[in-house]
Each structure stands twice: as structure tokens, then as C-alpha cells.
Records
---
Amino acid sequence: MNLKFGTDGIRGPVETKVTPEACLRIGHAAGIVFKELGWDTVLIGKDTRVSGYMLEAALQAGFLSVGMNVRLLGPLPTPGVAYLTKSFRNQCGVVISASHNDYQDNGIKIFDNSGVKIDRKIEMMIENILNEKITSLPSVEIGKAKRFDESGPRYVEFCKSTVPDEISFTDLRIVLDCANGASYKVSPDVFRELGAETIVVGDQPDGFNINQDCGSTNPELVQKLVKEHRADFGVSLDGDADRVTIIDRESNILDGDDILYILGFSNPNRLGPWSGIVGTQMSNVGLEDGLKELGYDFKRADVGDKYVSDLLSKEGWLLGGEPSGHIICRDLVSTGDGTIAALKTISSLVMLEKDPKDVLSCYNKIPQINESISVINKDIVSDAEVKTAINDIKSDLTINRILVRPSGTENKIRIMIESENKKTAKKYTNDLIKLFESKTP
């Protein structure tokens, strides 16, 4: 079985990649590694996919077989699992989720005892024993499993605690889209208990409708509802609630770059851990220029909130994120958290007494074209003709930046072209898509 960790754990179709056997092997192999690291208990959370219960059973069987104790958290946002993992000390966490993918996929994300996604060294240790024969310890030595029913309330209280006492949500009307995913119970409670009038959608999961025409990858739903309900904000989470898109009262979409700028703008401190902000190769060059004008250093990580987190840790900084809406506020959480990012953004705007458009008018966002194309083999990005086409585009002086990369979570090629001449950028994007299509059977 050829299982490898990607940019966000292991992810793929349930029938061919993230199968019950695969999860049994992952639990068995990871359990062996975790015990070597001194961790004796694993917390397992999941989103709302129909395959979740099946894979949860297989995963916990693997852990139990090597003597790891298991605490089953039920449906809980990925950042909620990370928070509890760090809170409980000397334990590790696993999330069964394929994030923003459709219900046919599922995946495994793993956190170490500090609530941070495991590093490549630990991933390789797990990969190296995934194909070993699965055996069980004697019955007297196998682990024990039990449910932890307080996971949701614990996470809700934590989220609420991140909002300063002087900030009130009682005069706010907020549309909240939970993507029929892991946040369908907890995130509505957070906003309601903070006093906001909350209109909730995407809170009726049936195992199949996660991310379906809703969630952060489909913000048009919240755009429409913000306008209909004359709401102050819209908050659109993805399937495991580790990323967010925010909608302002005029139904404008705020992506991760906009959120980072608002958070940077509202922070009066530019010293020490607040002296720099991390983006990714996908971050708009306008964001970089805007943050530098505010007095911040800015560095780019590889795409993936794991790499953003790694660079933040290396630099000793506290704020970073991706245009997709993975926002890491390391002063509060150890990983991307859509609910926390929304709370902090809204709190910042309330404190400033400004509309988002007034803040965002302070930086110039360069037009950016982003497209994806499905492929069978992602190595096609290394094709000689593709490389030549990319280099030809780079030679056009009207193009600011171009990034063509394989997705770390799906069988897709991502294309990003940034240019003041949007028409030219769109033409080049279409040319690349046609080229990839001609090379895909």
C-alpha cells in the first residue's frame, strides 16, 4: 500500500486510497511511532462525511492494537482537535477529514502533543512502517477507547474567550455558513453566546452534503444571504472549519489576504513577535507591499498552513495565513482556525469602528487569476513543453508573477497568474489549461 503524506496529511477517495485498511494501517503505524515518542493517548475527531464512522472504527482499531488509548471526540473542527490535544498535554490528535473536498474523499491529519501538525520526520517514520504486518498486543496490553462528550463545549468556551471583554457582538447580525461540516454544532453556539443575531446555514449535515454548494469555497451563498438579511458580516467556513471566507455588509468577499491585512492594520504593535507576517507563494504582491508600508516584515512560505506555521515558528512571529482562508493566530491557536480568524477579524473592525472597505482601501491588490485543472498525473508540471510555456509567460513584462503547481490534496494542477492586465493574465491561464488538457488522456 503506497500511502504518502501530502501538504495536509493523507487525503483521497475512500474507495481507493483512504480505505478502512489504510486507516487500520495508519493507526497501527502511527501508534507504534507515538509510543516511541512517549505519547500514550490519541484524540480522534472527524467531520460529517458518511465515511467518517467507518474510518474512525478502523483507525482506532489500529491504535488500540499497539496499546494506545483512544478518546473519541465526535464531529469537531480540525482546530478544535488541535486545541484539545495541546490542552490535554502529552497526547496527540488525529482528524478524519478531507477539508473542503467533496464527500467521496476523506483524509487523515495528525497533530503532535503541542497541537501542531507533525513534522516531516515523524511522517517518514510512520510511512516506513505502514506496510508492516499488523499484529496485536495481548488483550491485557491493548489500549482502551472511550468517548469524550465535552469536546464541543470545551472548544466553544475557548473560542469565546479569545474575544476581548470590551468587544460586544450584541449589535451585530451575522450570517454563518458551516458547510454542513464539522462546525455545524459548535460555531453557531460561539456566535450566539457572544450575543450576535446569527442566521445559520449549512448546519444540516447528512453525510453527503458537506461543502455542497456551500462553505468557504462557495461564498456566493453567504453573499446572497448577507444582502437579503442586511447582515453586518457573513462567515463562511469549510468542511473542517480550519479556513474561512468573510463577507462584508456590502456583500464583498474578503479572502485570506484581506483578513491578514485587516489583522495587521488593526494591531498597534510592530515589535518582536508582531514585527512580521507570513504569507505563501499564493499571497498577492499587493498584500506584501501593503504590510511592508505598515511597518511589517513579510515572508512567503510554501503553500499549506503547515508550512506557514513552520515559518512562523522559525521567525518567532504570531500571524500568518493563506489566500484560501487558512489564518494562523499563534497568540491564540496552533493551527489554522476559521472560527477564531472570523472572531478576531470582526473584533478588530468593531474596535476600529471601520468598515472593511475603509481598511482595505489602504492597500492595492493586484488582479490575480486562479484556476485549477484535474489531471491523472500531477508530474505533468515537469513536462518540457509546459516548462517552456511557463517561461514564455514569465518573459512578458506585464506579468507580475506566475505560479503553476500540483495540488497537495487533490489530483489537480493549480494555476495563478498575477498582472495589472487582467485580460492578458486570463488569456495565458486559458492557454495553459488547453496545454494541460492536450496532455491529459
---
Amino acid sequence: MSERVAIVMAAGQSTRMNTKLPKVLHEVCGRPMLEYVLDACRTAGVQKVIVVVGYGKDQIMARYADDSDVVFVEQKEQLGTGHAVMCCREHLEGLKGQVLILCGDAPLIRSETLKTLINKHEQEKSRATLATTVMDDPSGYGRIERDSYGNIQGIVEHNDCSEKQLAIQEINPGYFYFDVPILLEALKKITPNNVKNEYYLTDALHITIAEGHKVTAVTAVAPEDAMGVNNRFQLSQASKIMQQRIQERLMENGVTIVDPPNTWIDARAEIGQDTVIEPFTYIHGQVKVGRDCRIGPFAYLREDATLGSDVVLGVFTEIKSSTLGDGVRARHHSYIGNADVRENVNIGAGTITANFDGKNIHHTTIGKDSFVGSGAVLIAPLEISDNSHIKPGTVLLQEDIDSVVGKEAK
């Protein structure tokens, strides 16, 4: 198999976002937009991803410094999509395979779409292929021109369209796939002959067609997937679409979500079969929930919360950086932070682990088969042995544990 690489354009500042953060690092359902694009490339069989950075490059590079398949190229001046690809020449020279070219601000991209694009390119033995979208309202997008046989003739930008071309509903969402040698030759011939004085990647496609190489367009991108994120409103729209996908995937895998519009679940969360998520539950971060649990309503699971099977968390219960064993119950108004709660522990209403002393975070361990009464304050660092019984309203320090904590009758 020939080498397959990708170029992901992530250099823009995006003044419409009105932000200090690089646009591609803005999160959609808990993950940066760029991360969705990287994952889609990997799943589609890309071996190396070249990320073109510019504005906020240090933040992007720091975020993905540990990703061994990612290399960074700086685009010092933003002179168009074609120029961004030109900046990657040294990483493309000598490659005989293909290159995917995508935008980093398109988090709704699907690996299935990229696989369709790649398969079409191989089936047709094309030198360049792009995936297109059909939209009811194509305003603002470049239109795909085809001849009477359905062969692509080029892309016409919206502002350059004739009245007849404006009626075309097939548009260019920015999914390109080139044979690397063909792309490199086309890049040498691109000129900035336009109002913006920029180098357009679409011109590389036009040059490839004009030189008689086979170029294919496959209508493979769903209209919602074509949406890039250029402002905060579009960011919220993308998040809503992604949240629906996350919940649909979980429900297909056997999770019950009672009221999807009033539930929010992070893209990184893992939830087991036959778990029920009640309304107004918020799950954020790399959270793991086992089978047969009941979460909510109004529950809050934060980063690094891990729940075993048959766990019940009720109204206004918050879990953070903690592990709860099988059969744990915390039904009402409790906070469990930086704790290891072993199997079959009952946490009474209003109980909290006081894990922060103003300077440092401390850990709490509660042994299996223990009972913690309502309103208890467990002051960390604290280790409670198995089968312990803590009376309601107890304020518990480690030095008081022998005099305060009783034992359940065996």
C-alpha cells in the first residue's frame, strides 16, 4: 500500500470568533475541533498528519506534542489554502502516495466519508478526487460544475457565479485527495490572480483537470458535516449536532438516555450497557461508567470519575477524580472528590469529602460494605476501613477515626 498522508489547515486566527485561543482548539463536546479531524484521518488509514499552524501555533503544538504521527508546519503569512499546502512541500517531496487535504475547523467530519473518498479515488484510478455536498441553500459555497456526462469541470466560487451557476446545489466542502506528484506539479503553477491576492487550492484542481488528468467528484458529505466553524454561533450548532451523535452511539450500545435534549455527555465518556442516564445529568471529561447504573437526575460527573457496575447516583451528586466500586449508592446532594470508594458503600445525603485544604488536594479511601450517614464531612487525607459505620453529621479526621467510627455487625 502506498503511503497516505494528510494536510490539516489550522493556521487561521478567525477574527469572527473574537478569541485569544486558536480557533481549532475551541471544544466541541469536550474535545478540541482539531482532534476530531485528526481522529478521522487516522481511522481512514492516514499514517502521518501535517498540521499547518500560524496563529497560536505554540498552543496547538504543545497540545499535540505527544502525538507521534503529527508534524507541524508554520504558515507565517495566511495567503490562502493553496499557500498553506505549499508550506508543506518538504514533507511531500519524494512521496509516491496520496495526500488528504482538510480544514481543522470542521469537527463534524466522519471517517466513513474519508474512506468513501479514498475508495472512489482508487476505483476510478483518479489523480485527484474531492468529496462534495448537495445543499438546499448553497449560498456562500463554491459550486461544483459538471459536464453532461457528470464529469467535474471545476469549482466556481460563489461571488464569481453566473445566475445559472448560482442555482447549482452541489458545493465544495473542502475534502480533497490528490496523488502527491500531481499536487506538487500543480502547486508550481498556482498564481494569486484574484481579488484577495491569495493562492487557492481549488486552482490546483483546475490545473490538474486542464492538463488532462482524471479528476473525480463523489457526493459523499452530508450537509451538516460540511459546516465549518467560523463564529461562536456555529460552534454551538456543531456542539449540538455532535452531542446528538454521541448520545445516539451510546443508545445503540444499550444505554438508556431518558431525556436527550436535557442531558450533556462528553465525547470521551464511556458508559456500559443497561445504564440509565436521567434528565439534567452532565458528564464531562474522561469518565467511565459501568453496567446497570442509574445516574441522575441533576448528577455531575467530572474528569477521571470511574464508576463500577450497579452504581446509583442521585439528585445533585457530584463525582470528581474518584473511583466508585460496584454497588455504591450516593442518592442525594453529595460531593465525592479524589476518593476511592470500595464496593457496596452507602453515602448518605449531604455527605462530602473535604479534599482540599487551601493548598493541597488529599485523598480519601472508604472501605467496602461501609455506611456513611447523612451530612458527614470526611476530611482528607483519610482512610476508612471495611465495614465501617459513620454516624450522621460526623466531622471525621484521621486521628479521630478509632473513637468515632463504629463497625457494622457481621
---
Amino acid sequence: MAFAGQLIIENLPRDEKGNSLCVPCRTTKLLCGKERCPLLVRLHAHQRTHTLLTGTELAGASPPSVFVGRYGYPKVSIGPMLPPFGGDTSLLDTPERWVGRKIDDIVDFRSQLVRTRFQVKELNPEKGNRMVQRTQELAMAATPPHVDATLHRPPQGQMRYGATVQPMGPSAPLKAFDRDTVKVDRHIEKAHSDTDLLARDALSELHAKGVHTSAMSRAFSVGAFGVGKRRKLVPTRWSITAVDSTLGLKLLERTRELPLLGDYQLHEFTGLDNRWSVLLLPTEWCYELIEAWYPNTLWNPHRSGISIFHSFELNRGRKGYAEIGGCYYAARLAVNEHLHRLGRQAGVVIFREAHPGYILPVGVWNVREHVREALRQPPRRYGTLEEAMARVGFTMDIPMKRWIANSGVLKDRMFQKRLDDFEV
């Protein structure tokens, strides 16, 4: 999606012969099978800001937001993200506030942010140039600071979407930038100042103080935490999963010591045409995320057949990276937060149905925040696993038999013999 007066869309849907479906459709027939035209969503977001992004001078209030790229690592591109206007722009990069919003809103938020970038050869932020240090300070800000940026050329490029990071608007190489005095978040500043504090301990302390996960990921990506000389810039995509995984594992240490839940509890929620059912089992810790993608959704572009993926861990945890990706760790963090509030240990199975209304990817925050929101809802309580699963089968479109066939935890609980099964 070019922002210098031109709209470019990549990866257009095509028929079996490779012809674009968009030409005969022209947004009226929905030949791609989606409930709404993704091109129109992107176009409307594009039209709001492209006329403001024609020069090489850019001034606005960063939410705050920064982005560290992963291509070419260990040489990375880094820079602040900012819109062409001032005021309170914090909503544009605070996914904790996006539950209940429409996909159009989220695309609109993100399309307004220009991703400025300059290349960094030294990953240690302390050895970086002044622009690296200014970017680091901006990433730790508590409120949106005003930024004046000079670009090498006007912002342009495609609107980018991914499963891990939030959608991103146009980009431009950064020549120089300056910003107002930054009011740094006091909790993050304290962790940053302690150069003997391990990064995982810094994250744990910040989490206990209620700092947003997105704020921790942003500061983590610019090397704000950790033991002095070991601090590194971390690509944004990696930092999000690193924070989710680190916090989840830290909470899990305590979860394993808690008494077991007394009954089966089921939490439900629907958002962005994703249905969520979070089932808590009165067992020792085990965990699974099962995702079902309907036809004509992002990861299942086919016209027929539902694709189901899952990753799980039993009581001893897992060693390899989850097949399902960063969403696994985002949801694991959310459920461990909930178990700590309950003061109970439990097994957890999360069922997700992604329906065709989920026309564009919006980032891994979608999983973390919607699972959190589901767990805020009053639970339905059941005395047996069969009763709980009957409710899941009623709420979700996919029959329970197929969920079980694609589940590691449920099959383990239903069919694996245990010592107490042999007690006389």
C-alpha cells in the first residue's frame, strides 16, 4: 500500500488458473469468500493519512512506539513510529485497550503510524549512536512525546500484516529526529537503571506492578533490561514472544505449587469473529491451545474444509518451540495470570474458532487479550469433563469429537490410565 498517492495491495486472491478474483468482483460479489472486502478496509485506512505523508518532514506524538526489524540480523533497522499529528496518541499502540474494537478500527490505528528506520550495526544500545539512545528513551516513555523527524524520502510501502506484530503502516528511512523531554515510566526506569538485575527478573517485577505487557515488550526490544554489557537490541517480533514466554514460565513456577481447582470451569468470549472457550480442569498443570481456521480466513484460504492446529504441554512442560507459534505463549501467560488470581492450579484447554469475519491478521495481542477477556467472564461450572465438553460442543460449531481427535491434553485425560484408576 503506497502512501504517496498510490495504493498497492499484495497477495490478491486468485482462482485456480491464477487470475485475480478482485477484477471481476470489484468488492461487490465477495468472490474470495470473505464476509467483507479486505481491500476496502485497507483503502479506507489509507485515505485518512496519505495526503499528510507527502514530504520529508514529519511531526507528531509517538504513542510511544518503536520498531526493531529482524531482517539482516544482527544488523537491524530501528526507529520510532509516529503519526502526522499530535495529542494523546497512546491508543494507537496499546493493544490492551483494543478488546471490543473492530478490525477496521485497529487497521485505522496502525495505518496512521509511520515506521521510521535507520540501520544499526551494534546491538548493544549503550554502544550505539545518539539516535539509538533517543529511541531507547522514547520506548520507555509513559506518555506520548512530541517528535520532529527528518526523512530521506516521503513515507511509502505496503501496509504490513503479520500473525505476531500489530499491522504497520508506511515506512521511511530516518535522517534525524528530535523529541520533547520524555517522561519515562518510573517502574521501567527503575528496572533500566539496575544493571545487575536479570531481564527475566525485571519483567517479573514490572508485571507484578501492573505494567502493560506491550510496554514491557517495547522496552525489552530496545535493550532496556538485563545485566549491563549483555543488553541487546531485540527485533520486535522476537521480543513480544520472549516477554510472553518469560512471564508465563515465571508464573508457572508458582502455579505448580498451588492447590488444585475444585471443579471444571468454562469461560467463553467472542471478539473479531473469533470464538474462545477456555476450559479449566481440576488437575495438575497441563495446557493446550487448539485453533480451528474456517475456509477463507487468513491461514486457511481454501474454499472448503476447516484447518485445525494445536500445541500442548503436559505437567513436565515442553522443550521445543510450539508448532502454533507465538500465540501459544501469549495464551499461556493469560491463563497463568488467571490461576494466580484464583490461587489454584489447573489443567487448561483453549478452543479457538477463527471465522471468515476475521479478514486480516492483527497480531498476537489478539490471542493474549481475548483470552484475558474470556477469563474475566463469570465461569460455567461442571462436575464432570463430559458435561463441560458438551457445553463446548454446543457453543462452538465444530463437533466435540473432532476437537478431541485434534487434542493432546483431552486424549491424555480421557484415555490415559493413572494410578488412582487401580486403587481398590
